[in-house]
Amino acid sequence: MSATDIHTGAVPPRRDLGELRVIPVRHRARTIGTAFAAVLLIAILYSVLGNPRWGWPVFAEWFLSEPVLTGLGRTLLLTALGAFFGFTLGTVLALARVSSSPLLAALAWGFIWLFRSIPLIVLLLILNNLGYLYQTVSLGVPFTEISFFSYNTTQLMTPFLAAVLGLTLNLGAFSAEVIRGGILSVDQGQHEAAAALGLPKGHQARRIVLPQAMRSIVPTAFNEIIGLAKGTSMVYVLALPELFYTVQIIYRRNLEVIPLLMVATVWYLIILSVLSIIQYHIERHYARGALRTLPPNAFRVFFARLGLVSLYSPARPVSVAAETPAPVIRARSHGSDWANSLPGGGTVEIRGVTKAYGDLVVLEDVDLVIPSGSVTAIIGPSGSGKSTLLRSINHLERVDRGYIAIDRELIGYRREGDTLYELKEREVLERRTDVGMVFQNFNLFPHLTVLQNITEAPIKVRGLSRGDAERLALDLLARVGLADKAYAYPRQLSGGQQQRVAIARTLALKPKVLLFDEPTSALDPELVGEVLDVIKELAQSGITLIIVTHEIGFAREVADRIVFMEQGRVVETGSPEQVLNDPQHRRTADFIAKVL
Ligand SMILES: Nc1ncnc2c1ncn2[C@@H]1O[C@H](COP(=O)(O)OP(=O)(O)OP(=O)(O)O)[C@@H](O)[C@H]1O
């Protein structure tokens, strides 16, 4: 660019820029490192291929020979069976470890402790000698003559069965801890959201918790499987001719030790490479929703290395929409099927509710009746027990004294005279579906698309067909202004959009009562309005709304009644004008003066 250009501010013609040559910065250390790597590689290749003692002709003779391939087949079969049964056992043990039954958890812990302590080789030898300890293996009713079957242990426990059993027990114990680590890594909010939607425990584990846990399970699990594939060589102690034992037999006869060890090594390298590719794809599968953009698949990485394509496809969002064409969404707003089929609001009765965490009394003798179809805002200082009260309404928290009923039906209990019997999990889940809950942190399921988030509970809990559930979900998404986001994953949405999806998800169960736990406090100020607008519209729908909020202006605008809580007690209730403009208690007045 000339000096005149600078003074006049004229932009140089485009072709001038095109003619400029770009010289990338030189990294001297990187160049030396690359040269060193190249020399090292050449030296290794020269030493391996140039030294006749490696015996490559013998390697070539045996690499695809029948006994080696038979041994390889056995290694692969042992790996597959050990991995399948080992991880199945590991999953059961991990679920037992995190279960609320102390005995079950202790039993699982004992199993893991024992089988992680015993070296695999010792375990295999014990199993191989089981016939010495127990002559027969039988199944029957203890202390009676009844027997369903009985086998001779020595005949039953073949070397192959002992190998599969030993590898299964060993991998089961190690993988249980890997799986438990994965389960613990899933946010508590995910469990709560699933429970609040009334999803049964088994379904929660299968559809919500385990798929998310897989992200941290898969890398370590593959380490275990690779260890297992190599660990199968340990079954030589059972004289079972898998890959390693087969080459041992061959080199003892022809004394070509190194070439035959190379045969085994190269096959193990191939197994490991295949497992690594499988691992990459499984990790990629479970990354759906966890990342805003999926990592490229292995083929793309390969072709990108060759410079044939770019590593990432241009601006292609991770959404099913990219793979499945989205159906035409017919937005039906007011007067839709959904709105017409609402069950109407429920009356919430909270009677003498008291709850403590250890010595800390969080709720003390709370008495409230919230009429059907009303909008109640609960306000109060931090730690006053607002969220705990809300969570007690749908039995996410168990109260110590008193009871909570919706339309005269207790949520977590059955009443007989003066006694309350706690309901079974299934019954609690059924009743809970009348009470929807929207959380502060949205708690959407990140591995499911927006549509799947909404349809999960209606299909599982309400028994809707997939088609009906999807129609309902699309209708609700249109109502909250997100019809075009049905096939996106939650992480691809803004906070405000995520919260609107969470509201739609809750509405899909057609609850009588809707609980909002500070629905806007995790949002940036400019996103608060869009969520509040949706809640304002819901206030007209006839559903009973109970909102814990710090948005006093919003509470004034939308609520019929305000409840002020402090130190676990209801201090004052009344219309917004009364509580906010003319509070009866000094503590209410102090709080309002501080927040307004
Ligand atoms: N699981 C728990 N274990 C022990 N203490 C708890 C537990 N959950 C809540 N608490 C305590 O109970 C009290 C009430 O908590 P809660 O979350 O209901 O208050 P809050 O009024 O909703 O507060 P905030 O407005 O800050 O959310 C707090 O002192 C809190 O530390």
From TrEMBL:
<dbReference type="InterPro" id="IPR027417">
    <property type="entry name" value="P-loop_NTPase"/>
</dbReference>
<keyword id="KW-0812">Transmembrane</keyword>
<comment type="similarity">
    <text>Belongs to the binding-protein-dependent transport system permease family.</text>
</comment>
<feature type="transmembrane region" description="Helical">
    <location>
        <begin position="31"/>
        <end position="49"/>
    </location>
</feature>
<dbReference type="InterPro" id="IPR003439">
    <property type="entry name" value="ABC_transporter-like_ATP-bd"/>
</dbReference>
<dbReference type="InterPro" id="IPR035906">
    <property type="entry name" value="MetI-like_sf"/>
</dbReference>
<feature type="domain" description="ABC transmembrane type-1">
    <location>
        <begin position="72"/>
        <end position="279"/>
    </location>
</feature>
<keyword id="KW-1003">Cell membrane</keyword>
<feature type="domain" description="ABC transporter">
    <location>
        <begin position="348"/>
        <end position="592"/>
    </location>
</feature>
<keyword id="KW-0813">Transport</keyword>
<dbReference type="Pfam" id="PF00528">
    <property type="entry name" value="BPD_transp_1"/>
</dbReference>
<dbReference type="GO" id="GO:0016887">
    <property type="term" value="F:ATP hydrolysis activity"/>
</dbReference>
<feature type="transmembrane region" description="Helical">
    <location>
        <begin position="257"/>
        <end position="278"/>
    </location>
</feature>
<dbReference type="InterPro" id="IPR003593">
    <property type="entry name" value="AAA+_ATPase"/>
</dbReference>
<feature type="transmembrane region" description="Helical">
    <location>
        <begin position="76"/>
        <end position="96"/>
    </location>
</feature>
<feature type="transmembrane region" description="Helical">
    <location>
        <begin position="156"/>
        <end position="174"/>
    </location>
</feature>
<keyword id="KW-1133">Transmembrane helix</keyword>
<feature type="transmembrane region" description="Helical">
    <location>
        <begin position="103"/>
        <end position="127"/>
    </location>
</feature>
<dbReference type="InterPro" id="IPR017871">
    <property type="entry name" value="ABC_transporter-like_CS"/>
</dbReference>
<dbReference type="GO" id="GO:0005886">
    <property type="term" value="C:plasma membrane"/>
</dbReference>
<dbReference type="GO" id="GO:0005524">
    <property type="term" value="F:ATP binding"/>
</dbReference>
<dbReference type="InterPro" id="IPR050086">
    <property type="entry name" value="MetN_ABC_transporter-like"/>
</dbReference>
<dbReference type="InterPro" id="IPR000515">
    <property type="entry name" value="MetI-like"/>
</dbReference>
<dbReference type="GO" id="GO:0055085">
    <property type="term" value="P:transmembrane transport"/>
</dbReference>
<protein>
    <submittedName>
        <fullName>Amino acid ABC transporter permease/ATP-binding protein</fullName>
    </submittedName>
</protein>
<keyword id="KW-0067">ATP-binding</keyword>
<keyword id="KW-0547">Nucleotide-binding</keyword>
<keyword id="KW-0472">Membrane</keyword>
<comment type="similarity">
    <text>Belongs to the ABC transporter superfamily.</text>
</comment>
<dbReference type="Pfam" id="PF00005">
    <property type="entry name" value="ABC_tran"/>
</dbReference>
